[in-house]
Specification:
By secondary structure, the protein is an alpha+beta fold. It is 24% helix and 7% strand.
Length: 251
């Protein structure tokens, strides 16, 4: 009886887990279908710089239920390897010193599998290569970042109490401080460098954002909050204007 009960209990746990994955995937599917991350034949931006393909499945370009690599988040797209990225540097950056940026890892590495322009958009683990146009992102294409990441916020960096303490040291007299702890329902810290910190997904939701245009200013694509200030000020204090010189109409 004990063994039978244990089997039933384990089966129930597996069932709940599968159901939760189904709900998450269903919600993500509903969001991504109307975005530029829908690379399938139903891409609503086909005539507006969107990727063109004849593939009917939407999720397959990023996810697969079997033989995923990495297993979380059931990843299906090939990942860039052996790529040297030019990292962001500044006089106030405390995460690393010039020339010693940590390697891109975690979710950011998965994002760059398409956005750095080194791997075909249709290069999948589960289905081989799906034909797309363009085949690979290049300069001028929507969403292209390339390997020079020096113009954007640093990614794959640990964000913790130690970093906040260093940045907020009164002796440094930096005009913009860091908030800690980070407790926000949308802007989150993700695994990186054996800790938790800033990844692409901290600010961008690949399944669809919440950004709105305010006074003619459009937030970055897939933005996790309504305005770009709303996202920036989760981690940065509001005693200094948030303007990094970024073109917020582009990724």
């Amino acid at each position: 009886m004990h063994k039978k009960g244990l089997i039933i209990f384990k089966s129930a746990i597996i069932g709940v887990y599968c159901l939760s994955i189904f709900v998450l995937c269903f919600n993500a599917y509903g969001g991504v279908a109307s975005t530029r991350h829908n690379l399938s034949v139903s891409n609503p931006f086909r005539g507006d710089g969107g990727v063109i393909s004849e593939e009917s499945q939407i999720c397959i370009f990023c996810h697969t239920p079997h033989n995923a690599s990495p297993s979380y988040p059931l990843w299906n797209h090939q990942v860039s390897t052996g790529i040297t990225y030019t990292a962001y540097e500044s006089l106030t950056l405390q995460s690393y010193t010039p020339g010693s940026a940590p390697p891109i890892d975690g979710f950011s590495k998965l994002c760059l599998g398409c956005h750095d322009g080194t791997i075909a958009l249709g290069a999948l683990a589960s289905k081989g290569n799906i034909a797309t146009a363009p085949v690979i992102l290049s300069e001028g294409d929507y969403g292209y970042l390339g390997t020079d990441l020096s113009g954007g916020h640093p990614i794959s960096i640990v964000f913790d109490a130690n970093l906040a303490s260093m940045r907020n040291d009164p002796a440094l007299d930096f005009p913009m401080k860091l908030n800690w702890p980070i407790n926000d329902p949308y802007v989150k810290l993700y695994p990186t460098q054996d800790g938790y910190g800033v990844q692409c997904t901290s600010c961008h939701d690949p399944h669809g954002g919440r950004g709105i245009t305010v006074n003619g200013v459009q937030p970055p694509p897939f933005w996790r909050k309504e305005t770009y200030d709303d996202v920036c000020l989760v981690c940065h204090d509001d005693n200094f204007p948030v303007d990094m010189g970024h073109d917020y109409t582009q990724p």
